[in-house]
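debug: dumping io for the single-chain case to check the tokenizer round-trip. Nothing else runs in this session.
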Amino acid sequence: MLAMVVNDNACLLDKRGALESIVGTPPGASSLLQGICGERTNMSNDKYEQGLKIRTQVLGEAYVKRSIENADDFTRPLQEMVTEYCWGHVWGREGLSLKERSMINLAMISALNRPHELKLHVRGALRNGLSREQIREILLQVGIYCGVPAAVDSFRLAREAFAEADAEASS
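debug: decoded output
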């Protein structure tokens, strides 16, 4: 047996890493525990539902619906964790607006060279009220602090995202 603590929860794992028991699981902990321990626990769905609403608002209904519907036994825990923790617990906080969070995300995702996520979040930034000029300024800042190659790739991907958004708006 291995005892570990995740978000103030006691997990007892057997030698294979299978969950034996959970002690004192607060609302919202089950997706993370499921991802680590491989089993679903009872939970309050408040943060998941809040995350689903914000995720849909930012990334678009079609993308979110497709991501959730295409989840299988292997990827479902990741989808649940992303929705609950990323979108419910973090994006759902009051300290920053969705627009400000989009600005931060564009810079970080560009710096990390995550092209799929960058295109997705450029479209989200537009939905959150950023102008193309603001996105350009963020990407210029990336070029200074993260390197010109990161900015070049990010500008190219942003143009592709703009074209997709324009085509969607025209249809």
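debug: round-trip ok. The two ends are 58 Å apart (CA to CA).
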